[in-house]
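User: Can you help me understand a structure? I only have the sequence.
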Amino acid sequence: MADLAVRTAQEKKARDIIVLDLRPSTLVCDYFVICTVTTPLQGRAVADYLEEELPERLRHREGYREGRWILLDYGSVVIHVFREEERRFYDLERLWAPPERERPAQME
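Assistant: Let's start by predicting it. Here is the structure, written out as tokens:
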């Protein structure tokens, strides 16, 4: 489902698309798909196309009217369609990044 979301967003020229595997971190969903669009109009077009093409039923949608951060919740996959400014501000990649493994202290 996440791979299909990536291909579908690419078809509408979304860019900087990444998939975050959240399975080790949360039970809320398995994956975030995050992409960037240049305008609210493009954001709505990407969201509309995702809704048309993805086989699973959409559970929840937020932010569609403003088109600056559109969230599409499909249960196991949550898709975030961001304008560049909002993506930088909310920085979900950093917020949901897996924790770095503890490293042993270096002996001097």
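Now, to help you interpret it: The chain has one domain: 2-95. The CA atoms of residues 11 and 105 lie 47 Å apart. Let me know which part you'd like to focus on.
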